[in-house]
Amino acid sequence: xxxxxxxxxxxxxxxxxxxxxxxxxxxxxxxxxxxxxxxxxxxxxxxxxxxxxxxxxxxxxxxxxxxxxxxxxxxxxxxxxxxxxxxxxxxxxxxxxxxxxxxxxxxxxxxxxxxxxxxxxxxxxxxxxxxxxxxxxxxxxxxxxxxxxxxxxxxxxxxxxxxxxxxxxxxxxxxxxxxxxxxxxxxxxxxxxxxxxxxxxxxxxxxxxxxxxxxxxxxxxxxxxxxxxxxxxxxxxxxxxxxxxxxxxxxxxxxxxxxxxxxxxxxxxxxxxxxxxxxxxxxxxxxxxxxxxxxxxxxxxxxxxxxxxxxxxxxxxxxxxxxxxxxxxxxxxxxxxxxxxxxxxxxxxxxxxxxxxxx
Length: 359
Fold this sequence. Notes:
Blueprint: H1 3-31, H2 34-38, H3 46-53, H4 57-69, E1 74-75, E2 82-83, H5 86-92, H6 113-125, H7 136-161, H8 165-170, E3 174-178, H9 184-192, E4 197-202, H10 205-218, E5 223-227, E6 244-250, H11 259-269, E7 270-281, H12 287-290, H13 296-311, H14 327-336, E8 341-345, E9 352-358
Parallel strand pairs: 3-4, 3-6, 4-5, 6-7
Antiparallel strand pairs: 1-2, 7-9, 8-9
């Protein structure tokens, strides 16, 4: 099988996952009466749909964009207004008058009933779910998705591409992984650089428990995992803490309620000459540009279930969502936090971009 053929096969597999997540979004649309509210209304903005339904506008915007990406709603070029056409209404809205109605066939199978109930309530309150509220399966799923990447991309491709980082790690450098999840990336680094010290922070107790178990199983004594947030990083020069040579945030900044505060905390925690390595979802920052993504509906579905949800789990949360940090937004976030050097690395990862950041 050629590389191109394998990539097409991978896309086919992810499209099945996309169908699973979109089916959950259809269930929420049926359950919350969104299709019925759209039926016959013409093009509506998220704010107008919020007024009709009494639901939270931010949640509706993410759901509407996901439905448009899936081809279930019609939208304009800027994704500012959305319409359920007559064909769609017969299938998704008209339960009592259409033999084609299919909305009742979807029960939210991509999540447990408890999580589905909580997500439906989030549309009403605007308050999202924390990572732990998604249940143990979420930590396990994230671990399974990240572990191969840590072995195949982080060590052989990314670390050597970062100026001076590999040498600092060989010489006993300190690393912090903020939002480490179950620790797949940090454990790979700890095994490759035994002289270093590696700290993992994550607000999820379920994920940290898995990380500690994995470290013990691997016999790694140079790691430490704690239930903590990025805001809790110890500033360099506090006590005997010299600061970190490398800080990682992988696919998690957009999940945070206060990414701006975390960015400033990372700047304060880096040792002189230290590096912040960011991994964020590949996106254009525009609706038209993102249309090229064949799994765009999956991204918006993930956002409603997890990314945006976590980022809205506290009052005043940023709620960026899965696609909320395209390159211009990453650079703006870093520069607002006092960083002056932001370098983009594109290693042909179909889903992510990487940023090498220094003060």
